[in-house]
Amino acid sequence: MVRKYIVLITDLGEGSPFPGIMKGVIKSISPEAEIIDLSHQVRPYQVEEASFLLMCNYKYFPQGTILVTVVDPEVGGKRKIVLVKTKNYFFLAPDNGILSWVLKKEKPEKIIEVKNEKYFLKPVSNTFQGRDIFAPVVGWLAKGEKIKNFGPKIDKIKKIPFPEVVHQNNRWIGKIIYIDHFGNLVSNFAQEEFSKLLEQNFSLRIKNKIFSRLSSSYSEVKKGEPCLLWDSFGFLEIALREDNLAQQWRIKPGEKVILEIKRESAKGP
Predict the structure, then answer these.
(1) Residue 247 maps to which CATH number?
(2) Sequence-distant (≥ 6) Cβ neighbours of residue 46 within 8 angstroms
(3) pTM of the model
(4) Beta-bridge partners for 204
(5) What's the pLDDT tens digit per position in 82-124?
(6) Which site among 47, 128, 153, 211 is 20 to 30 Å from 226 CA-CA?
(7) Does residue 161 lie within any of the structural domains?
């Protein structure tokens, strides 16, 4: 596979120097590499948020792309750094569960624990290993270095469960798992599982707000009005047209979302 493209997902912040430093290290090793910033605005230390973005977006990049995810609350500690090869991609990340969800969609062919210090910058900082380990490793990988040279093969990585919707009689209890740049609330109700259910007579409640209608676009409501629709990731989204719903309603990730179906029409997803 051609390894020309490198995609970065981090919590380092768009306005900080850290993403630029990482890119400088990568380019010093592999000048031909093309670096794409998916996001540096993951909320600090939020592994699940980074995992969600990776799971939803990896497939839009060319075969052979190296996806590097650096959201690393245990940086400098005993956690491993892993490099995973699948049929179509490479994934480099701390072994903190961040690859759990994407690897349900992309079957691992080989998992390497990154340990070969030959490919690290020296000295290695215990606070910025994005610069000293992740960046040089991905630079050498993009340059064509064999995956086996970065460390020993291992059989498994740490896993974290996807936050599943809980079913209780005619109620389904989910939660907000992501808030985008516009303040739209993305829930864990997946379209492929719940689209038929929302064709029935339903009510969806978040805090004291109730929805009973699904929109097909933001334009179906007036400016400043809330709407419920399937987002581009394939999950149920709650939005406020041309306004920031998360700020207006003071909602954060983890907020409970309850879907109810009238008993006479309840059929299940």
Answers:
(1) 2.40.30.90
(2) 11, 71, 253
(3) 0.93
(4) 211, 259
(5) 999 999 999 999 999 999 999 999 999 999 999 999 999 999 9
(6) 47
(7) no
